[in-house]
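agent: user wants the full assembly modeled, not chains individually. Plan: 1) parse entity lines 2) check alphabet per entity 3) run joint structure prediction 4) return tokens. Steps 1-2 passed, two entities, 444 residues total. Proceeding.
--- entities ---
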Amino acid sequence: MPVCDNAATVVSGFNNVPPPVRGVVRDLRIRWALEEIGRDYRMELFDAMTPRSDEYREWQPFAQVPAFDDGEIRMFESGAILLYLGEQDPRLLPIASATRWQAITWLFAGMNSVEPHVLQINAIDIFHVGEEWAAQARPGAVKLAEKKLAVVEKALADRDWLAGPFTIADILMVTVLRCLDHTDMIAAFPALAAYKARAEARPAFRRALTEQLEAYSAPAGE
Amino acid sequence: MPVCDNAATVVSGFNNVPPPVRGVVRDLRIRWALEEIGRDYRMELFDAMTPRSDEYREWQPFAQVPAFDDGEIRMFESGAILLYLGEQDPRLLPIASATRWQAITWLFAGMNSVEPHVLQINAIDIFHVGEEWAAQARPGAVKLAEKKLAVVEKALADRDWLAGPFTIADILMVTVLRCLDHTDMIAAFPALAAYKARAEARPAFRRALTEQLEAYSAPAGE
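--- prediction returned ---
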């Protein structure tokens, strides 16, 4: 098991989160990337329902997870950490320039052109459920998100992964798509649904998800 | 003037956008970066109010701007393009590892932890103005955006720029902050307001903004 008590690579995550967000918290992205390259790592777990300490905010100023520390670099933002790991291993980010930049382009597209619209639906359905404005805003938010999903669907028509080979862009995009698992939106896009299933069948993903979900049953502090 | 008819570097932008978004469309980020390093470039301008062609969607599948082509790499997503340019010039992204990854961390923080919350306010104030849900959603959206701005304010307490020296992270963050110019939100954060003013006073920024605004009075296709 790559999660290892004395590993040099440390990632922050939660040991307790509300049920609707289990399996989508963003430390999953980093766990998955590390599992893909078989690198040992150690999780530093916090209770999501308790405010983070000032010390943690020195590491992750937005007080979110994941934050990352490998003894060389201390950083935060899952997209930045994926890029950092990608630069260390061509199984996550190819060295060839055209493929590399296509992967990085899609990494940013996932973070900035797709995720905000997906998270808007999540916010409406989970965090603002029952509020009158949320119900009114939902149809427009769904329509906008579907426009973005249609672009990714089209991009996947002629390839298995966004940049050709599997890369950090796929880790990002698939973990974004998973935030719609409480809806039937993905099913309307066959290439996207197949892509998501293909990614979720990867052994590294399965291991990462299992570890993340198991952490939620651990006593605080472990 | 670095905008040059036969330049090898091509960036897409608009020659016509609605008044509320003038000065904030994202090609400004790439214009600004190119002005900082004095590289010649050519703009390929489209009418924002006319649907983009299928040919353009081959270049930028989300049909937005900017897209980028330097004869070597064809890509889209302003964050990815900033990173690409940063890797070519240490005035945009230092080579030293700790500073480099701090800049990249803040680049992603700007795109993913700050921008979505700022654009939510923009969407409420500009695109959904007059809709009942927008008025109801606004106080919560402002509160959330202010929480994110407070983090950036704190990060800027002891430095002029997010990663120490001026980098692509600042180009990103400042162009995000500018989307709140129709509000008085930034004024409540003195370090943030000073940071934004410091960035907007840079000659490269002034040139980029002037060029972008001038393009909106150009006849279509130029």
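agent: reporting back. The longest strand of chain A covers residues 10-16. Chain A has two domains: 10-92+204-210, 97-202.
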